[in-house]
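Hey, quick one: can you model this chain's 3D structure?
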Amino acid sequence: MSSDLFSGKALREIRQGVRRWQQQTLKGRLSPEHSESGIPIELVYTPEDVADINYVADLGLPGEAPFVRGIYPDMYRGRLFTVRQIAGFGTPEDCNKRIKFLLDHGATGVNIVFDLPTVRGYDSDDPRAEGNCGQCGVSIDSVRDLEALFDEIPIDKISVSLVTHLPSVTVALLAMYTVMAERRGISLADLAGTTQNDFLMETTIGSAPEILPPQHSFRLQCDVVEFCSRNLPRWNSISFNGYNLREAGSDAVTEVGVAIANARATATELNRRGLPIDSFAPRLSFFWDLCDDFFEEIAKCRASRFVWYKVVNEELGAQELRSMWMRFHVQTSGISLTMVEPFNNIARSAFQGLAAVLGGAQSVHIDSYDEAYSAPTEEAALLSVRTQQIIQTETGVVNTVDPLAGSYFVEYLTREMATRIMECMHNIDTRGGIVAAVTSGWLHREISDYAYRQQKALRNCQRKKVGLNYCPSDESKKPQITVFTYPETERKQKEKLVRLRQERDEKRLRAALKRLRKACDSGENVMPCAIEAARAEATLGEIEQVFREHFGLWQSPLTAF
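Sure thing. Here's the predicted structure for all 561 residues.
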């Protein structure tokens, strides 16, 4: 007669069996291994490794607290994850064609990435934009550009992700987006989508000649969240960005711990402004990087839901279940792509995308194999869409909710990830919170140290990358792919700016920008005044310049270490 798998007797028998196996069968043949985040990985896992897990309190059922097994009870059986491939290059007119191409071939959401001048708040005719307009993202200077970008795109029927990075740029571009909708007769209540809007992108992760101080960048981040919670009920006001933190230099634990620490600080600030947690938490979202360590990435996704539930329920006092949902978008790892043997990237991204789905992602972007060179070609972008569709329709992994649940290894790893994520957040707390951790330079140092260790491990072949440092071939030095050619952008954008400045009402513009400056000074939410500036056809650079002049610039403290 079989005994209960987790009974005291069974666990004693398992423990004795493992010891016997180690001595007689394994005979000491054991090389130590660790996950990418440094978690020790045993050769084999048994019920003993998960015996102290309380199923109801630590796992639960899908759609129920603590949401480890997914936020929806039926998950992908009820609604497939959104196929949200990134689009962004050239002029808005160029990018509009790519958006339509992706939607025509099965993409179910829009995901727009902007060029470096736009991301950093410079107009296309700014000297600092020279040579970068339309490169690796679409160029946006005014509300007219957003009208061209979304021409004939049903923004009231499909969700749109605007990868705006900086909160100050989010203020400007979201203001322009709402004015565009207004001109098309679309109610703000009908707009569904996401703005990235993470102050860490400005102060810690990205680099630029002009950076707002962390406390002011954080304020603008919270202004956007507050405005959206009051006026855009279907809009995800922020995507706490673990992805770019991971790409810059962090492990999976730090990626999630820092993002949730930022989310907690944001919620605390909005509470101070008088907003109850349940009025805005349902529209907070997260953005994860799915990298090479397959099982750790799945465990990361599951653990992130558990930790967020604990924070929102126990610390912030949320009452509604939707407030406790950890909703996240996933992009496969860009930093894992190689220029040598670029077709290897197809396999890398496919496995990472599969891990995202097994981890319960709400929307997915799978990197194209040629993104180590440029924006993806149409052919490569289509292959990425097809990869997602194959996962959805041919693999069967969407038929069962959380299919890896119950794996001794996955459950052990999920619990270990959750513990370490909470330890990371506690470490941030001891440093005064996320804003203080940035201001002091602690997070900068963590990123640079980790990135150095990872690069050194690649050079020393301690981290294996097929085709790069593991089994490289001579042919790999000559990639046989067609590289995307960026369309002419800078001249066209400059010409549009000349027309804009000739045609707009300068008196109305000056008055709107003056009101925006007063809002910065008074501490009131800047979004309504930014919308007025967008209606007056202020450019992105003109709105951004108001913030730079009022809040001043900040020098990263990284050089102090």
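One thing worth noting: The mean pLDDT is 95.
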